[in-house]
Amino acid sequence: MGATITREQAAERDGSAAGLRAIDVDVHPQITDWGTVAPYAPEGLRHRMTRRGGPPMARHGFKMVGPRFGSAPAPPDSAGKAGHPASDPAWVKGQYLDRRGVDVAILTGDLTSLGVQPNADVAAAIAQAVNDWVLDRWVRPFDCFKGSILVAPQDAAQAVAEIDRLGDDPGMVQVLLGSATESPLGRRQYHPIYEACARHDLPLALHIGGEGAGMAPPSTAVGHPTTYFEWYGSLPQVYMAHIMSMITEGVFEKFPTLKVVLHEGGVFWLPHIMWRFDKNWKAQRSETPWVKEPPSAYILRHFYSTTYPLEASPAPAHLGQVLEMIEADRTLLFSSNYPNWELGDPFAMIDDVPEGLRPRVLVENALAVYGERLLRPHS
Q1: Where are the transmembrane segments (predicted)?
Q2: Fold for domain 7-374?
């Protein structure tokens, strides 16, 4: 995938890169007034976005327990109602990025069930409108924010058109899918999306959160869970399924430059799937002769993980062992999931990451994954 840069190389080419402290690859801008988004949608579908509560979205019934935003900074009450911590880009910059030493933030969002919205045209219209709204409200006024090209995979042709429309915009650095889909992501109907990612030299980002909603299968292999606690704890299963599907279906032989960033899935399950997948490949590889290497090689070369929520291991030594197994010096990226800090402070989660690894996790791995566009001026 295209040219990648280290922090030192970036500093030589652009003084703004010198002394970078942190790059956050997962910040969630919040839409509090869909009326501001509707004008960006195709005229015939704008009415779907101006209804109270926003456009129709696929939903599941699991609601988090406890304070949603944890210690994330909250705006002061106005007329007895607290503002949302991620509705105002200036607030997020001043109260989170500047105070916590984050120099660049990649915007993702909360529309994680878009890929299982029954109406493909509405889903594509939502994606287009949100992308333009994010660019105009967040990205172009603030060089510290970079956007993600949100697409709906139900109609690959519309998804590709959206990637082609914005793929060369300097404010966009990746293509974003919710990991909740109708079928495993290795299936051939999704391949045009990956081709478009490769054509524009853009990583593909997956974000969990819509599993079990709309047209999605149940969020576990044995059916729907009962509680939010069970639902959230089971979510890495979907990443296991997508990884196995994409490798088995030959996605990375067909698109050898494609990089995939897995948001909010943790990392401790990765060694298990690598070992099991490799063992089975040795015995059953004749069924998929296009899979030319052990599956773990594809995983380590093409998949990247984020730190929120990094599992709380019983001992720091256990974390170090797992980080070594997954080659975290290349594959682990810092993320905050801001402002959804119900599981704790994102910087506290990396306290046990070995000191020598921290600069790579906080800065250098993101520069390597996203390349020079991550620091390219866009305003």
Answers
A1: none
A2: TIM Barrel (3.20.20)
